[in-house]
Backbone:
């Protein structure tokens, strides 16, 4: 009979984040020695890292840190929601966020090269991949700087960690900036102002609008006005300042900010699994 208890299984699962059957097999092989069982999980897991590279890590969480005028968002991914809500994965995500903040990483590549306990983040993720038995990766990160920054994390499911994260750099009223951060989480704008949208993208939208109007049989004389209206609709959908405000659809975000004497200078939004 194996020399371990249900409490040993629970403790090793919490320590490693590995699945129950994997933990039981490791404890059996190690004759109940938790340290040896942990090593077995790591060795067997690392052998499977390459096999897991092609698997989809579409679950996970977004976590945020704000320090004065700097806001950092990190998306850490795994394969299942079971792992995503586990204490070990959440702790790992916190360590990755700390590494992003400490290193001032601006890109995913820079973050993977940053250090956690003297090891590159990439190596730490591979070790977690090994013990947990799922593909673990950092898909996206974002860093925003400004006079002041607020963050907002949103749970799409009450039993999971935050799936959407937003940081907003602003000048003015904190409450207004926080409201706009919540709006961004819900309405997912892609840019702050229309000037940030590439000219070729706008021209493509204009061509599509004109072709669609012609296909619908609209009068030739009315085409310019129709096209302009549809292009403006594209801006209203994608540009933060031109979106209808979530809490007051009669006003745009820009109007709400103006009323509050506040200016948003930059923002970033991450959602788990979104490309």
Residues:
């Amino acid at each position: 009979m194996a020399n371990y208890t249900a409490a040993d299984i629970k403790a090793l699962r919490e320590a490693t984040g590995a699945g129950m059957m994997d933990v039981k097999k490791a404890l059996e092989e190690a004759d109940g020695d938790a340290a040896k069982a942990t090593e077995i999980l790591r060795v067997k897991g690392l052998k499977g890292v390459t096999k897991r590279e092609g698997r989809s890590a579409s679950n996970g969480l977004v976590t945020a840190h704000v320090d004065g005028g700097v806001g950092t968002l990190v998306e850490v991914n795994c394969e299942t929601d079971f792992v995503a809500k586990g204490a070990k994965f959440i702790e790992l995500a916190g360590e990755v966020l700390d590494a992003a903040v400490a290193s001032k990483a601006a890109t995913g590549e820079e973050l993977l090269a940053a250090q956690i306990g003297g090891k590159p983040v990439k190596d730490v993720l591979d070790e977690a991949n090994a013990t947990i038995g799922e593909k673990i990766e950092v898909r996206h990160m974002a860093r925003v700087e400004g006079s002041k920054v607020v963050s907002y994390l949103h749970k799409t499911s009450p039993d999971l960690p935050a799936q959407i994260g937003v940081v907003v750099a602003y000048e003015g009223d904190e409450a207004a900036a926080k409201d706009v951060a919540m709006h961004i989480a819900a309405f997912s704008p892609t840019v702050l102002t229309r000037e940030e949208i590439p000219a070729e993208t706008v021209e493509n939208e204009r061509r599509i609008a004109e072709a669609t109007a012609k296909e619908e049989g609209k009068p030739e004389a009315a085409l310019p006005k129709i096209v302009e209206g549809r292009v403006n609709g594209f801006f209203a959908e994608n540009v933060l300042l031109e979106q209808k405000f979530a809490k007051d659809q009669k006003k745009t975000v820009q109007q709400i900010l103006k009323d509050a004497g506040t200016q948003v200078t930059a923002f970033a939004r991450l959602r788990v699994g979104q490309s």
Q: What stands out?
A: Residues 87-103 form the longest helix (17 residues).
